[in-house]
């Protein structure tokens, strides 16, 4: 028993910043190799994080003073926290870099929204970023801030750009129940997805195998338009398929935020995910997950 305790504390520390759903899925994959410290801004989540095998610490990226005790705490970091909801810079990531270590390793979860509208083209990681909305602009800023930190500190940075994250409990059921329209076929856009479990596995791989400064599209093999996605979910849960509208009419009935997601079209190549990180997807396509759902789930 004594040796077990020694080994436990001899493991390198891993700091998980923004330990939400994907972070919780990550913990079982890394706690054997790291002593995991999970940052939360919600004290009431500490018991949940502790039960999942992490050491919880309460801190808030919006309040730099709460981060000071984290300085140099861990040489391995997973950054899952989104930027603040407004502005064109990611101040949260700026605050985080002030406490990051020298010669560390960090995995950052960005978004494929940084590519902007590609008009349905196939996109790999060599495509220049062209963000069209404030959310994506903040993510590009975060990537740039972290690249500067990595060069300055001699650290290894891996950037995973994730599309729409889904899981059995992360599907647009309420949207379908509300009858929110989708675009008609000739106006529709290609959309991309990754199951939350596969994203967690990609993060774990990047911690060990990520190349310095490398960007990886963390996307599955789906090749479908957005309305097709909604139809597939509706069919799996015996819900009505959404009505179709032309773009001009849809603009009048959906929120600007939702419309922005329906205004960008791209298909993602994931060769680096498969060949460099060596990830075999559990869910190659969204339909693979939908076909496995338990009967009677609503």
From TrEMBL:
One GO BP annotation is: potassium ion transport
| Stored InterPro entries | Epimerase_deHydtase, NAD(P)-bd_dom_sf, NAD(P)-dependent_oxidoreduct, RCK_N
**What domain of life does the UniProt record list for this protein's source?**
Bacteria
Q: Where is the NAD-dependent epimerase/dehydratase domain?
A: 100-217
Quote the cellular component terms of the Gene Ontology held in the record.
cytoplasm
Residues forming the RCK N-terminal domain are 15-70
| Cross-referenced Pfam families | Epimerase, TrkA_N
- What are this entry's molecular-function GO terms? aldehyde dehydrogenase (NAD+) activity
The protein in question is named NAD(P)H-binding protein
